[in-house]
Amino acid sequence: MTDTRPPFPPFTEETARQKVRAAEEAWNSRDPERVALAYTEDSEWRNRDTFLRGRAQIVEFLRDKWRRELGYRLRKELWACTDDRIAVRFEYEWHDAQGQWFRSYGNENWEFAENGLMRRRFASINDLPITADERRVAL
Length: 139
What we know:
The chain is of the alpha+beta class and 139 residues long.
């Protein structure tokens, strides 16, 4: 049986916003297995300078990420969409083991298969050290 993840391409602004909200909710769960189910088995990623292929690598990457990025909380916003592609801007906040807070922000480009699973994710991310008082992503 083929996995599916509605809504399906081609995207309208409304269905693209649904995809963005679903991604935000999944990532805020900090559950690598749950997040990975939104991607094709052979999904391609570029996350900063890391290149991944497939769900197993995605799960391992996310496990490691959330071991380092404590208190992680993410906000995503639709930037643009067309056919089978969505662009988002995002920001998330987290702290390291020493208690230093960061705001990470950037852009992602997503490409989807017909079944609604993401087959490509390319993320450009920058980090900004902040104080706990400067946090703005809702908890």
